[in-house]
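queue> pop job 88
queue> type: inverse folding (structure -> sequence)
queue> payload:
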């Protein structure tokens, strides 16, 4: 499934603040889990490459993408791409990619990119 990032908290399909029940209806089959006994509840939509974490009120607070999800920002595919390549492409769209220890952040949008070996393996919106 393709997701276009619109902001630090929203895609064209789902957004931080969406309700748990609506997210589950929208994305389909899932498995629920907690990363630790005291962690917030998350749903993994394995077939889509999407993981959603909910706050205590049952609204989306973090959205994470991995393969096979297709994730775009201003028409640029992020998943599976090299950070060097993305740096150049995002600059053409007036976006700054700021490297960090685990990948990079798209500055101004606060979109986290997980690329421990230089290739994008994951993208996160929201904050946990």
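queue> result:
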């Amino acid at each position: 499934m393709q997701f276009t990032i619109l902001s630090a908290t929203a895609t064209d399909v789902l957004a931080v603040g969406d309700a748990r029940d609506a997210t589950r209806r929208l994305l389909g089959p899932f498995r629920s889990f907690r990363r630790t006994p005291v962690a917030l509840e998350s749903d993994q939509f394995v077939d889509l490459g999407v993981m959603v974490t909910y706050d205590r009120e049952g609204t989306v607070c973090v959205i994470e993408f991995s393969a096979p999800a297709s994730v775009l920002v201003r028409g640029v595919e992020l998943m599976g791409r090299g950070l060097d390549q993305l740096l150049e492409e995002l600059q053409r769209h007036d976006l700054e990619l700021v490297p960090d220890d685990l990948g990079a952040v798209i500055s101004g949008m606060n979109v986290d990119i997980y690329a421990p070996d230089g290739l994008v393996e994951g993208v996160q919106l929201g904050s946990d």
